Amino acid sequence: xxxxxxxxxxxxxxxxxxxxxGTLVLASLLKYADVSVKIKRFFQFGDVNKFDTFIxxxxxxxxxxxxxxxxxxxxxxxxxICLKIAERIKKVSPETxxxxxxxxxxxxAKETILxxxxxDFVCCGEGENTVVPFFKSLIxxxxxxxxxxxxxxxxxxxxxxxxxxxxxxFDELPFVDFSLWTDVERTENDIKVLPIDVGRGxxxxxxxxxxxxxxxxxxxxxxxxxIVDEINLVHETFNITRFKFMHDMFTMNxxxxxxxxxxxxxxxxxxxxxxxxxxDCLSEELIDTMVDAGLDRIFIGIESGxxxxxKIINKNLKLDKVYDIIDYIAKKGISISxxxxxxxxxETLEDVSQTLHSYFTLSKYNxxxxxxxxxxxxxxxxxxxxxxxxxxxxxxxxxLAGDLGVSxxxxxxxxxxxxxxxxxxxxxxxxxxxxxxxxxxxxxRKIPSIYLYLSKYYTPTTLVNMYFDWEKANMDLLEKIDAxxxxxxxxxxxxxxxxxxxxxxxxxxxNILKDVIRFYVDYVLNEKTGFLGIYEFIIDDYFDNxxxxxxxxxxxxxxxxxxxxxxxNKMML
Length: 573
Fold this sequence. Notes:
Among the domains are: 5-160, Rossmann fold; 193-375, TIM Barrel, CATH 3.20.20; 512-573, no CATH class. Helix content is 36%, strand content 17%. The chain has 23 helices and 20 strands. The strands form five sheets. It has a seven-stranded mixed β-sheet, with helices on both faces. Strands 8-11-12-13-14-15 form a six-stranded parallel β-sheet. The model is unreliable at 538-557 and 568-573 (pLDDT under 50).
């Protein structure tokens, strides 16, 4: 069936959290305005790793609807893919308008329009008030080029319209039409949780963040009634009771969050939800309120364990207070994701050590998920603006940028450094010395107790030397690893063949350390059945694996039974 507008989103899975909520909002507005619209996702085009076939399929899937407009939601990790699809669409159907929107297109709108003739327009800023009049004007064949937020070329000259005003009252917007998401068949496992837009904007000014510019540092939260009404709509449509509240800085307005929690508690069914917050915008009282209303997961960006770097990157967290609030959250049984960044241009080895110390320290908590990423230079950020002339082509790049389709688009990426700075490298001596640091961090996440225990051999300001010692011991393994192989495969290989632990053979608990790794390799990696042997370690302290639920506590000799239950016999080491 023909459609006036096809929206293309980067969803690579049927799971609802992969859908792009912002696209659903715009598509719904067009549908309510009698514009025929459909959303197409990457997973409908096949495997991105088979890139040529993927692009062929994308062209056929999109143009099968004879759209007048193809609009792309763009983020930093798939911008190159969107450009490749757009180029193909324009080549086969020159009369089709190509429109880019989303955070990445917004950040490099001018560069995109100047570099790629097949992109007709970039729409910047919030599009709820502009998408209908602009898209209708394109469909009618009389483009309204006065629409706020447009970036385009006229007579080979760049035109940049003023940005649209930010939405002041979300409650005036109509509710989304979820039929635009139910056009594909999903299993029960695909619809367990849903992201829901609760507001926008972060008023803080971290130098590595681009979203603050996209939302103009203007914090807004939907009304409690509107959010609960949307929760009810989702519940009625998908029977979902788990949500991810989408907002960069959800807890900025504690009174508004408290009001929302009170409304949530009035629901006749219980929900669980996740959110993002700054640690210094949380209090014990607010946490109690949120937990009572169903808070189950929270994301906290710490970024650096160095007080000096906290000031340089404009994060400005008081780290002692961060740890206090995390401790309180953890005691409530809430799942915590804590995020760090390493490799800032002004960072020293001591700063990295302090970040690593903070990262290791948090591993003691249950339901704690820690992430540490190589600093990326995203377009639209202060850190990119200051250092853009120093960036060079990268052999390795941060996992924050993503690697989906990158190998097939190397020429595109390297040919447009102003558009793809996130795939470029800042060659400081420190960053060069941390070439394999990501691999080290991956391993420490799988067996955190090992590295927390061994950190006693280092100080908080020299802890990065653990990485250098690990790298030296395992260099022959690391040199065999492709920089962009799958994380799971790399971790398995490095843990199973590790040489680092052997350098601690004089440690009084060396046999325990070996057995933790042996147990992990046997039970988790190789999934052996039957009698797996004898293991000496303190399970609670040295091994954390959700597959193992039948065990006793204490210093034990551990046997894995054929049915994979655990038998623990008390003993003294």
